[in-house]
Amino acid sequence: MAATDKALAGLRQMIASGELGPGAKFPPEPELCDHLGVSRSSLREAVRSLGALGVIESRHGSGTYVSALDPAAIIGRFSLSVELIPLEGVLELLEVRRVLEAHATAAAAARQDPELAAHLSEVLDRLESTTDATEIQHLDAEFHGLICAAGGNPTVTALTGVIRGRGGHYRIFEPGADFDAIKQTSDRGHREILAAITTRDPAAAATAASAHIAQTELWLRALRPIPQPALP
């Protein structure tokens, strides 16, 4: 095992075991090097790696600490890797998103928040009235993000957001022969989701969300768009 890998494995074990819990300050560097049996350079490289993952944080003038280990925050860092996944991998991720959003949409319907339906309806009114590809993508993300947040699980919201972010590079709402059919199908799917949430029917909400995302998978498989830069 390389020295840096040894240092990384040691730190991971200390955190995973609870020896260094959320918010805990790291021991002094010499003490930690002795404990792990690694050099300072290897330890620092391991610390940088965990910092990039959101697991630890350095506080200027204070030292190095374990982060709050918030699942949503850590999952959000996955976007650095997910952004590199090609279309075939994105299609696999969409299957995961389909399961997660079906669950989140059912939970949102069960929570019976009267303000949610009104907010979603307003977003859909704007979405259905535009043919601008950039605006469509932003409003679509807002619609799904609101539902996931209403589902009440920040980790699910973060993970679906990461998947949706990469999927957004493969744009299906671009001017072309299929645009009208795609837009009409998508708008109809959104309305079916909203109807289930409005009538507080979790089972129908889950079914509508799953069907809507499955349709997106079908369009991506058929069109196989070239990935584009992220939208501002």
TrEMBL record:
Gene Ontology molecular functions: DNA binding
SUPFAM superfamilies: GntR ligand-binding domain-like, Winged helix' DNA-binding domain
A Pfam family matched in the record: FCD
Domain of life: Bacteria
InterPro entries noted in UniProt: GntR_C, TF_FadR/GntR_C, Tscrpt_reg_HTH_GntR, WH-like_DNA-bd_sf, WH_DNA-bd_sf
Keyword hit for Transcription: yes
Residues of the HTH gntR-type domain: 1-69
Classification via CDD domains: WHTH_GntR (cd07377)
Transmembrane segments: none
Name of the protein: DNA-binding FadR family transcriptional regulator
Natural source organism: Kribbella pratensis
